[in-house]
Design a protein that fits this description.
With 542 residues, this protein is α/β, with parallel strands linked by helices. Helix content is 30%, strand content 18%. α6 runs antiparallel to α7. The longest helix has 23 residues. It is globular. The two termini are 51 Å apart. 37% of the residues are buried.
């Protein structure tokens, strides 16, 4: 353990209306267990998170929601929260919209909240997917091949050139109107779909970009979490892999594992240093067919699974940020890789839909050296002592062939290493906690209630005769196997017996029929039926 003075209150801010956001609960518990007075500014009631014993008070967010381009409503809301608390507090934004809005009003919150210092408009720039692609190209960060079309014809041509299906993204998803029915990310299968989607750019409020589709699979989805002081100096950092996600292979982490990887950690540390980033970030990577990790998303806030990266002393990225903003010493991280994070509700859905057990043995490809969390890999770029100092690409050494082999191991080569049980670490549940049961019970009740409600809605759409048939099947008495055997076939009708005195009456009796085969032979021969069933491998791959 380490010294922790919780004399400064903390405010957890989430403007995204998601009552099942387990990351907010994780931040409340992380600081509350250290004796910090934790407040939350979320939707009305706070959802299951509002039942936590470590939460001091829940404050409603801006009335009528928030326009991200006009954050004055959030400024008024936070000033009111500050006056009710009565003293300065640490402010932790838990979603992209909150981080972007807080960065815009940060100068007006000085003296009321302790906020990470960010260069002008930085959270909006890195969360903008089009701007992120330009940053990656400038700093030689692997990124999926991206096109930013300027018209419908260009969108159709770009989709055809990148290969179909292609990934279509809105560069600023937080601007999407809720009633438009647009999704932040869409898989387009034809050039015409890309053209039609581009024609809705004005409605979406931001640019459309198209990316090459990187297929998802085992060992392809990775992430990087880090807490940084001024100038991009790492306080705590680590890389992990998604074992299960919800929706399957495309969504948030349902089951994740802390696995150090030099390529992922080097990319995360390098981009934070180049930006002079202060605060918490969450990066998403996907491994392509050649084994190269490509940065696909930048979230300027804690990820929902941030509690995965908790070292042996209990330090996580939220606590590290709190210590840094309150002027306390952040201890050196010790241990932690091998831990597993499970979001119980999403893990259940993902395992049932994906037909995959969430906690399978850990397999790594090749002999990859491990870099301790929060430490620059050997041979990495030098530290820039001042944030305003010039950072040029020359400070990043050119990768040698040996370094490429470490940064981008090719799948399918090298021995498979199964991590011993002693290295796997303990499991961190998102909801269940023996010292804080009420949020878990509230989530479980709401989760089951939603499932029952969906089932009732589906049942209401079934015709009445369908419901009667279902009830009849359920209530039918169980029958024994012999009761289900088909009845014996009646003997085939033959010709009527000849009348007495007819010539055929004197004919010799017919030759007796050959004996029927034994039951076993009959069963083996069987009647001619359909073709043989497919092999198990065929059934699995369909």
């Amino acid at each position: 353990m380490y010294e922790f003075a919780g004399h400064v209150p903390a405010v957890v801010l989430r403007l995204d209306r998601n009552p099942f956001h387990h990351g907010t609960l994780g931040a409340v518990r992380s600081l509350g267990r250290k004796g910090v007075e934790v407040h939350a500014v979320v939707e009305a009631g706070g959802g299951p998170m509002g039942r936590s014993r470590y939460l001091h008070a829940v404050h409603p967010g801006p009335s009528g929601g928030l326009d991200p381009e006009a954050p004055e409503a959030l400024l008024e809301c936070l000033v009111g929260v500050s006056e009710r608390i009565g003293r300065p507090a640490v402010l932790v934004a838990m979603d992209d919209l909150s981080a972007i809005a807080v960065a815009r009003i940060a100068p007006m919150l000085a003296g009321r909240f302790r906020i990470p210092h960010q260069p002008d408009g930085l959270p909006a720039r890195v969360a903008d997917k089009a701007e992120l692609s330009l940053l990656c190209a400038r700093w030689d960060i692997p990124h999926p091949e991206t096109a930013i079309p300027a018209g419908g014809a260009e969108a159709a041509e770009a989709a055809w050139r990148l290969g179909l299906p292609a990934v279509a993204k809105w560069s600023r998803p937080w601007l999407l109107p809720t009633e438009a029915g647009l999704r932040s990310t869409t898989l387009v299968h034809t050039a015409a779909e890309a053209r039609r989607l581009y024609e809705r750019s004005a409605e979406a409020g931001s640019r459309l970009l198209l990316q090459r589709f990187l297929p998802a699979g085992t060992d392809t989805d990775w992430f990087f979490h880090g807490a940084f002081a001024r100038g991009g100096r790492p306080l705590l950092a680590g890389s992990g892999r998604k074992e299960l996600s919800w929706p399957v292979r495309t969504g948030l982490t349902a089951v994740g594992r802390w696995l150090p990887d030099p390529a992922v950690e080097e990319a995360g540390l390098r981009i934070a240093e180049r930006l002079g980033y202060q605060g918490i970030l969450d990066l998403d990577f996907r491994r392509d067919e050649s084994g190269c990790f490509r940065l696909v998303d930048f979230n300027p806030r804690p990820g929902a699974q941030f509690r995965l990266f908790t070292d042996a002393g209990g330090l996580d990225v939220v606590q590290a940020l709190y210590l840094d903003l309150t002027g306390q010493r952040v201890p050196r991280p010790s241990g932690g890789p091998g831990r597993v994070f499970v979001a119980e509700n999403y893990a259940l859905l993902a395992s049932l839909r994906g037909r995959q057990w969430p906690l399978q043995p850990v397999r790594r490809t090749g002999a990859v050296p491990v870099v301790p969390a929060g430490r620059r890999p050997e041979g990495g770029p030098e530290r820039v002592p001042e944030r305003g100092a010039e950072r040029t690409p020359e400070r990043v050494p050119e990768r040698t062939p040996e370094r490429r082999a470490v940064s981008a191991p090719v799948r399918g080569t090298g021995p498979l290493r199964v991590v011993p049980r002693a290295e796997r670490g303990r499991v961190e549940p998102a909801w269940f906690a023996a010292d804080d049961l009420m949020p878990f019970l509230a989530m479980l009740a709401a989760f089951l209630g939603r499932g029952a409600g969906k089932g009732a809605r589906v049942l209401r759409t079934v015709p009445a005769h369908g419901r009667r048939t279902a009830r009849a099947v359920v209530s039918a008495p169980r029958q024994r196997v012999r009761d289900l055997a088909p009845p014996a076939a009646p003997p085939a009708p033959g010709p009527p017996p000849p009348a007495p005195g007819h010539p055929s009456a004197t004919v010799a009796p017919a030759k007796p029929a050959p004996p029927s085969p034994p039951p076993a032979a009959t069963a083996l021969q069987g009647p001619p039926g359909p073709a043989a069933a497919a092999e198990p491998d065929e059934l699995v791959t369909r």
